[in-house]
User: Fold Phytanoyl-CoA dioxygenase from Emiliania huxleyi.
Amino acid sequence: MLEFERTGHVRTRKLLPGAATSALSKEVDRLYTERESEALRQKVRVLLGDDRLARAEHKSAASPHVLRRILREELPEGAVPFMQLFNLWRTSPMVHELWRSPALAGTAASLLGVERVRLYQDSYFLKRPGDGPTHWHSDLSMAPLDTNSFVTCWLPLHDVAAPDDGGSSLVFASGSHRDVALNFWHGDPRRPVDASTRGYPLRDGGALRAGDATWHHGWVLHSAAPNMGDVPRRAVAVSFYADGASRLQGALRSQHDEDAESCVAWLGDVRPGRAARHRWLPLVWPPDATGGGSARGSVGSCAEASTRARRSVGGAGGRGGRGGAGDGKRGRGGGARGRRRAWGKVEP
Ligand SMILES: O=C(O)CCC(=O)C(=O)O
Assistant:
């Protein structure tokens, strides 16, 4: 807890037993096969914009084949950092149970130092061979929540080599979550900030075994190297926040829209400034908590959510975040051959 408080990240060895990790890995594979078109659609929106997605789907939903072709032909090599699928828990009771477990929700409550914790989202990150770097970003810049009490557990589904040995687990700008001056003096959303001069030590979790995890604070800057190997790097990130946090209102800037598909199911029901409490933001800790979301009936709601996401996500997309196209101002390591630890300009 002290390490987390000071650095904004921590590693937990053997968080999950081997059997639980391989069962999770199989379930994630199954869900990805079933819902791949959601991931493809999100990637087209984020990297090529709403208009491109709308053109691809002007008559009917584009097939995975068509979406894959658009990504392959219309983007430079290495521009896609990973494929991403949100909220596996909504269609998998098994995954939901795991996120509510003492290992996940209990650890999140301990790290945040709170008694009641809600699940914000989960996200599968499939970094395929040749996929580019995950840009420097902080998770809270993509969440419409007005809080500092937010933590993400990053759980690889297989052994991952240390970043110095060619692995692509997360690298953290240690202590950046406590750099109030960064946002205070350089927080103009119109001007990206060059964080390379701020002296953050870059740290990572070293080599990780399946079942190990790293945890990072919602404001800590982090990134990941391109996948230079020949097997996919597969991981799940599960984000939690302290119950009582409110939906953002009246902010100087709005959150980055990369994760828009994830929150569209509850955003319309929670007024800005009100506590972010919703069945799609279930209370997962303490264990006897009630009123959490249920995976039952979720298929209809998810389909509706992604339709609404497609209509409601405005702008050109790809303005940065962890997986955006970048705007030439951030992430010097663009492209699969980018330097793994290169600092670029980041939006804090
Ligand atoms: O796995 C990745 O490359 C990105 C994960 C990430 O940014 C996160 O867990 O917040």
